[in-house]
Design brief:
Length: 364
Amino acid sequence: MDKGIKIAINTGGGDAPGLNAVIEAVVMAAYNRHWEVYGIKNGYAGLLDTDEIIHLTPDKVRHISNLGGTIIGTTNKGNPFKMPVTNMAGETGLRDVSDKVVENFKRLCFDCLIAVGGDGSIKIAYDFYKKGIPVICVPKTIDNDLGATVITFGFDTAVSIATEAIDRLHSTAKSHDRVMVVEVMGRSAGWIALNSGLSGAADVILIPEIPFDINRVCEHIMAGELRGQRYAIVVVAEGAVPAGGTFIDKGMGEIGRQEVVLGGVGEFVAKKIAEKTGKDTRSLVLGHLQRGGSPTTFDRLISLRFGAAAVRMVEAKNFGTMVSLEPPEMKAVPLEDVIGNIKHVPIESDSIKTAREIGISFGD
Ligand code: F6P
């Protein structure tokens, strides 16, 4: 039995239901091997200001697997290779402070880092691996857009919340003979929109993988009208694009953020539908409701399994890898195969075929 292994764990990027379950499993699986786990607060901030490190003992993680968020905090603007810093004149720029992170990691005698995150966080973890930190990643994102694993944790919860919202929209849309347009998250992948739209009996689902023609969307709604269905539900992925156009964004948001903030396509689609069909139309953005609160049983379970598997990979010294769910097993995949390997909805997939066969339009 290895003695005295000291694991550091951080959570990076947008939060996702299941993060605390991963932490619980890592801490308990390590504790039962007589190892120690330390939580690095807010991504890598805790390795810059080391007061932000918490010794995670079993009492601190007892049954947190049902809690949303992350007890060690997260950030999507804390890349130490491009850290926002403000100088004496009050000007803010980006600086590489990664050496400081490595120095503190070594000074504190950590043996490895378990980095829980999506594509962006895994890329940062890989850069630290190349700088000598033994890293193991755990795939987190509600978007389910990582190609190197069958599923990421957080996705099932996001889909459940979106489906419940769509279910609720049916009655209000029907009562008012309205078109309700609901924008869901997912970045450049349509997984949340597709799975929730299909489960929630949407009339139209717009996803980034299938550029839409607004005229086709309106024709589909009006065809329903002719059959006597006077209301419609349109589910739009935040990254959906009109044919020949581009996605709608709100700019870069806070300084230090690596990706644009998507959003606005639901409102755009609703306006066009109202103009072209004359139907009373409303839009809503589901937003961060999809990320908040308790994980589903499925997400809890895979998060616990991801966490325990990560500790097994520490034991096997299988660094520079990510835990991947390849049912029924958890496997290790090299980080090189994870980075930039974004999983989009295959347009010939069975779910797309099913949706089309039951009369759902993708606006194409
Ligand atoms: O990647 C997860 C995600 O929730 C995306 O679906 C969404 O575009 C983004 O994060 C939102 O980020 P923020 O929390 O910074 O608004």
